[in-house]
Write a structure and sequence with these properties.
By secondary structure, the protein is α+β, with helices and mostly antiparallel strands. Helices cover about 30% and strands about 25% of the residues. The protein has three helices and four strands, in the order E-H-E-H-E-E-H. Strands 2-1-3-4 form a four-stranded mixed beta sheet, with helices on one face. It is globular, with a radius of gyration of 13 Å.
Length: about 100
């Protein structure tokens, strides 16, 4: 039997958290790419939070972030992470399983 936490309800957005470090080119690219992916793949389905680790460096240790930019799908569980500028849309969708129902 599958754990019910693995499936988001149809009305609940997927919770994505993007960890960046200031206004670096990779951070800005990751933000723009994530915005494009969310806009193109069922707009309104995602709750996105961007956390700047230059402003809150303690969160890197607390949230086990070892590289930046890192995108974390927090809900539904299990947590999934992908590192990089998110330029490969298909890789992001497949790895984080954000395109699945």
């Amino acid at each position: 039997m599958q754990d019910a936490t693995e499936f988001a309800s149809p009305n609940e957005p997927l919770k994505l958290v993007l960890y960046v470090a200031g206004q670096t080119p990779k951070s800005l690219a990751a933000i723009a790419n994530l915005q494009r992916i969310c806009d193109e793949n069922e707009p309104g389905k995602y709750a996105v939070e961007v956390i700047d680790l230059k402003k809150a460096p303690q969160l890197a240790r607390e949230h086990n972030i070892v590289a930046i930019p890192t995108l974390v799908r927090q809900l539904p569980t299990p947590i999934r992470k992908i590192i990089g500028d998110l330029s490969d849309r298909e890789k992001v969708l497949v790895h984080l399983k954000v395109g699945e129902e």
